[in-house]
Write a structure and sequence with these properties.
Strand content of chain A: under 5%
CATH class of chain A: Mainly Alpha
Structural class of chain A: mainly alpha
Mean pLDDT of chain A: 86
Shape of chain A: globular
CATH superfamily of the largest domain in chain B: P-loop containing nucleotide triphosphate hydrolases
Low-confidence stretches of chain B: 368-401
Number of domains of chain B: 2
Order of helices and strands of chain B: EEEHEEEHHHEHEHEEHHEEEEEEEEHEEH
Number of strands of chain A: 0
Strand order of the largest sheet of chain B: 6-7-8-3-9-10
Oligomer: heterodimer
Largest sheet of chain B: 6 strands, mixed
CATH class of the largest domain in chain B: Alpha Beta
CATH architecture of chain A: Orthogonal Bundle
Helix content of chain B: 10-25%
Distance between the termini of chain A: 46 Å
Number of helices of chain A: 11
Shape of chain B: globular
CATH topology of chain A: MetI-like fold
Number of strands of chain B: 20
């Protein structure tokens, strides 16, 4: 694919970087949240779950707007950043990561939560009667049994971060090499009538989306086979 | 309540769970198999879960062999109790091979204690040698349950809880597993709490019995004592029977008859040859025992034993259930005899009277238990198949006529 401009490859690389970092962070913080949601019997569990699921229905620009207000120089985020002379997260790569984590959270937490819930109490009770502490039971029984859920969550979280546009535009701005990711780049190319680059990126996204959907279906099939 | 008695399993569980109230107190020896028997929904499983620490009922008490697991100030969590728990469904970890399932709860440090359960012994006892590398998905129901039992044993428990381990299995698979459980019982010193609603399993395996009904314990004691207590439902049931432990005294090859010694008498039973000196569990149903004032002169009934009537009670209004004690002095094992009230009156029978018990049928309910550890005649590799046929042979051996 020679002849494509360097800024296109920058956008592709930046997108992969953003999606990877977001996915890793989400697996780390989403797992305990998913575990708690799956196991908690408190009445307000579903209220917390609904808050986490909000990005599923909110227009991304709304979430982006609030993030911009919060993280901008005049918001609480800016005040806190000012305390140690740091700059605000708005229009930075870190700000993008922060926004993406919030935005993609339900896509990661939900499959993991469902996988944890599907295990039921029995394997954990078995582990307990075999002298496994709750921590050991979690790592050696719950996590491996919920494996397909983790895989599904990671794929979905990654894919949704790659495809996000509204939120990125709101808090990331459009700084080449820093916050200019794929979806924004396509928009720019179309604006500038650079159809060749736009076609290339859009086509790539279609192939990527196809791969994601296919992977998800295969994961689902495999885990259904495992459950029997 | 104090756990001042070692060698006992002491429990008192009180509380209500979703509208069901449990008030179960009992004390059982911390040796042998103690069965908990009762209809579905009587609270048996809750008792087992409380013993394992999977269920918390406040104000309850539980101590095993003098070691307090729960009282007012203590509640040891499930993973802090040395129990093995065999669930109704095998619940093997589906992401681990059979071998890794077996070793999941095995302590990493090798203790030197003499009564620890050895890996090879468990494999041998339960016929697991060929299954080790397999995934639980590729096992039959019976194989899964055997692996689950092995896994529980290898966690080196001081108490093994078995919650209806056979009730999810079909008749054939049950008969495949029962001999394994009998061998377990014969070879290991581990106390077992065995929960079941199937009396035939209990008659084969149990030494002690706890009877439950509506969340309460209505009787507890040695199996044969509860079976012969006319105040309890067992003796009054249609299929009332007594389980007896007998020793093989002789084998008459020309007639194919075993001589079995029980407390206070001897029984002759046609059966395939069994090594002299082995122990056999017998089952004699109340309806197979009739009574006579004098020893019959000419009769085809092989087993006519002197006995004494200990007690009697009327069933319905046509029948009498009599509790007998074998031996002319009446100090031997108990038997039940169900006869018509008419016969009772015609013969002028009364309590404390010496009689002759005519036993028409004796079932050998077990055959796999061997007295010395290690001297099992079945090689581990084909243990399941051989055990099935041996079991079918002995379980069906009954005298009649």
């Amino acid at each position: 694919m020679g002849g494509l401009p360097a800024d296109l490859w920058h956008a592709v690389w930046l997108t992969i970087e953003l999606a990877s970092i977001t996915t890793v962070i989400l697996l780390v913080i989403g797992t305990p949240i998913a575990w708690w949601l799956a196991r908690s019997k408190a009445w307000w569990t579903e209220a917390i779950a609904a808050v986490i699921a909000l990005p599923l229905v909110l227009p991304p620009t709304v979430l982006g707007f609030y993030l911009l207000v919060t993280l901008g120089p005049n918001g609480p985020g800016g005040l806190i950043a000012g305390l140690w002379g740091g700059r605000t997260l708005a229009f930075t790569f870190e700000g993008l990561v922060f926004g993406s984590v919030l935005y993609a959270m339900p896509f990661v937490v939900q499959p993991i939560r469902n996988a944890f819930a599907a295990i039921g109490d029995r394997p954990l009770e078995v582990a307990a009667t075999l002298r496994a502490s709750p921590r050991r039971a979690f790592w050696t029984v719950a996590v491996p049994l919920a494996g397909p859920g983790f895989l599904a969550g990671a794929v979905l979280g990654f894919a949704h971060t790659v495809g996000e546009f509204g939120l990125v535009l709101m808090i990331g701005g459009n700084i080449p090499g820093r916050t200019k990711v794929l979806s924004v780049a396509i928009f720019d190319y179309v604006e500038a009538s650079r159809w060749r680059e736009a076609t290339f990126l859009a086509g790539g996204m279609v192939i990527f989306a196809f791969a994601v959907v296919l992977t998800m279906t295969l994961i689902e099939k495999r885990s259904a086979g495992l459950r029997r | 309540m104090k756990a001042d008695r070692s060698g006992r399993i002491q429990a008192a569980f009180h509380g209500s769970l979703g509208g069901f109230s449990l008030d179960a107190s009992f004390s059982a020896p911390a040796t042998g198999v103690t069965a908990i028997f009762g209809p579905s929904g009587c609270g048996k499983t809750t008792v087992a879960r409380c013993l394992a620490g999977l269920q918390y009922l406040s104000g309850s008490f539980c101590a095993i062999d003098g070691d307090i697991w729960q009282d007012r100030s203590t509640f040891r969590k499930a993973h802090q109790r040395p129990v093995g728990y065999v669930f109704q469904e095998a619940s093997l970890f589906s992401h681990l091979s059979v071998k890794r399932n077996l070793l999941y709860g095995a302590p990493r440090s090798i203790g030197s204690s003499a009564d620890r359960v050895d890996f090879d012994e468990v494999i041998d006892l339960l016929g697991l040698a060929r299954l080790l590398q397999r995934s639980p998905h590729h096992l039959s129901g019976g194989e899964r349950q055997r692996a689950a039992i092995g896994r529980a044993l290898l966690s080196q428990p001081r108490l093994l809880l078995m919650d209806e381990p056979l009730s999810a299995l079909d008749r054939l698979t049950k008969n495949e597993i029962l001999p394994f459980l009998e061998r377990l019982h014969a070879r290991l010193k581990l106390p077992v709490i065995y929960i079941s609603h199937d009396m035939s399993e209990i008659e084969r395996l149990a030494d002690h019995l706890i009877l439950m009904q509506h969340g309460r314990v209505i009787g507890a004691g040695p199996l044969a004592v509860l079976q012969s207590d006319p105040a309890l439902p067992l003796a009054r049931a249609r299929d009332a029977a007594i389980s007896l432990d007998a020793t093989v005294e002789a084998y008459d090859a020309s007639y194919g008859l075993l001589t079995l010694q029980v407390e206070g008498g001897r029984l002759l039973v046609p059966a395939p040859p069994v090594t002299v000196g082995t122990r056999q569990r017998l089952r004699i149903t109340a309806s197979d025992v009739s009574l006579a004032r004098t020893a019959a002169q000419a009769s085809s009934i092989l087993n006519v034993l002197p006995a004494r009537i200990v007690s009697s009670s009327v069933l319905g209004h046509g029948e009498v259930i009599a509790v007998l004690a074998l031996g002319s002095d009446g100090h031997g094992a108990n038997l039940l005899a169900r006869i018509t009230r008419r016969s009772w009156d015609l013969l002028g029978l009364a309590e404390q009277m010496p009689v002759f018990a005519q036993v028409k049928g004796v079932s050998l309910v077990s055959g796999a238990a061997s007295p010395q550890p290690g001297s099992h005649p079945i090689s581990p590799d084909d243990a399941p198949r051989t055990a099935v046929s041996a079991d079918a042979g002995t379980a069906l051996a009954e005298t009649s006529g």
